[in-house]
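Re: the pair you flagged

First of the two:
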Amino acid sequence: MKKIQILGTGCPKCKKLAENAEMAAKELGIEYEIEKITNINDIMNFGVMMTPALAIDGEVKTSGRIPSVDEIKNMLR
């Protein structure tokens, strides 16, 4: 099972990133769990300075932008 982590304070961009990540996982048909990390200290522990950020299985893949559904699919493969 993939652990998809959305790092951000809950802004509209963070919500869009969560939607894209969920859509990518569903389209791939993989088992996944989405965790939203909103605490600024927890976000900084990932080394992220710009939100929204996307981490998969604890590894930061993007920050400061919203990747497309296709980009996220490639990260999940």
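Second of the two:
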Amino acid sequence: MQAPEERFEALGVRELYLSVHPENRPARSLYDSLDYMFTETICEYFGEGEDRMIMKKILNTTKSSSLSPCR
């Protein structure tokens, strides 16, 4: 997950969002460890019984990077 985050940061993206099933504890734990924050739960995101937690990470866009947005 670090490589895409660095690429987005180099492109000036300030926030990343993802969705995860509320009962997927291993994934939630991973996202927590990567500094993603819970923002909301959306009921029936993928249909009946398919709720999702939305998580957000704020990127440090002040950091300069030599990544090319073309690769």
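The chain has one domain: 2-58.

-B.
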